[in-house]
Amino acid sequence: MINPFKRYRIDSLFIICFAGLITIVLAITVWTSYAMTSRELADNTSYYQKRLLEELNNEITGRLTSIEQISLTTSRDHDLLTFLSGKEDEFNHYRRSKGIQEALAHLTYSIPQIQAIDLYMEQPEWGDRQSYIQFHELKAAEAQPWYPLLQNNDFSWSEEHDLTTYKGNVPVLSFSRKVYNNSRYLGILVVHVKADWIRGILEGYAKDSNRMLLDLNGRELLSVGKSMTDAGLQEQDLQFADQSGVLRQHTQPHGVESLVVYSKVADSNWMLVEITPWERITSGSVKLAGVIITIGIGALLLAFLLTLWLSRQLLKPIAQLVRAMKNYDVGGKQAELAGDYTNEFGILFAGFRRLNERIQALYASLAQRYEQQRKAEIEALQANINPHFLYNTLDQLNWMAIAEGQEKMSRILELMGRMFRIGLSHGESFITIEDELTHVACYLEIQQIRWEDGLEYEVQASKEVRDLFIPKMTLQPFVENSIIHGFNARQSGRIQIKAEEEGGRVRMTITDNGSGLAPESIGSHRRKGGYGIRNVRERFSAFFNDNYEIHVKDGEFEGVVVTIIFPRLEEAQT
């Protein structure tokens, strides 16, 4: 992916970046404010709605329960049971019907919430059609809306329906109860309760709320505002487990999101439900988000103007510098840059001027440096002759020692010659491990001659390892350190050198049985390794960066253990 700062104009990038940043911050702010405020409003709304529904439910439950108790007491009245049994003569039956009618009428007058009372029996008495107390044929109950609910129950509440009276249709809730006497089915007592009375309690002070009175099966008995079906809820949607709670769900048919608050009083047969459209709850949050968006758009316009002005101020000196760089010509007339900038642009202009002066000076000195380079090359060629001269001289000294019978001196000169030849290695920085081990073996043999067999050494390396490459002059400084410091003031010593492969790397180990690293030697050449070992570390760092390890530590029982780990090299590195 191409970096846009390498392709497009800076002023355009400035505007896009600032506008994008403000847009992102604005979007996050709007969303956060909307989410937080809407959640807070929903929590507060659900809390107060739940409290209100609990109060309303307590009141409605108390009123309707009293109606049920009145119905139960009336259905067990002796006169009513005697009247429904039909075992009296015609005169007493008529007289008792009048008494029952007066008693039921007294209930309707004393309890204003009762609209009327109907009694269904086998042989009803004729009554006043304008009375609130009516006797009906038992078969006529089958046509009433509450009758199907009594098929599997002894009593039940009906949904809201219209009751026909001499004053017209009146909306009521009907509580019907079967009347029994010694397990004999006698009739049905129906108490009609004014629906407007219950609706007034349910409505409370909220004129625009959607509240429903349900039974425990989720059947709607009465509603204020929209009915349960109009609000998009079905009976199977209302699976309430607790006495009171809150649901947030999508109501049908259009998937409108609503807040559903419900309340159920313990040991009651009622449940109150209030449905509030989510958009009504979050209307305040939407207004707040609109205000924030308006402010954000204004801030976006101001940011656009500000970034446009800033980008032009920034691009003006940059454009001058770019033109000066494009028109630069060595030895020609240079473009003039503004001199009144004292900020970073002034530093850039001053640096460009100094750069021009240095370029001019460099061009002026090229001829002189070229001449000096030619001379240096000639001197380097001459310097290559000196090592060969020294090697030839050692060879001549070796022959002189042989002629004089100095066998030890001859052997030392021979070993030094071999070491010198390996050290030259045609100017290469890397040699085979075989040559490196030969080089250090020559050094150890010279020390053996000096120690008169007091020094022992052992070299372990497989043929495969010996064919790998290593920076030259790696082992000799560590071996020399062991002899000079580890075997100081001693008559004997032993050194072991081991080379092996280990997971795509080479491990070289140098072990001696010398005096070890004494605590007082910390910080000394024994710990740091002197110039030769520092040289090895610096060369390894230059060749391998951090892909190597060199550790110098005390042995387990005596002496020092040097560990050198570096990458496996099958050919010399340049």
UniProtKB/TrEMBL annotation:
Pfam families for this protein: dCache_1, HAMP, HATPase_c, His_kinase
SMART domains for the chain: HAMP
Database matches in InterPro entries: Bact_2-comp_sensor_kinase, dCache_1, HAMP_dom, HATPase_C_sf, HATPase_dom, Sig_transdc_His_kin_internal
Key word DNA repair present: no
Organism of this sequence: Paenibacillus campinasensis
Transmembrane segments: 12-34, 288-310
Name used for this protein in its record: HAMP domain-containing protein
Subcellular location, record wording: Cell membrane
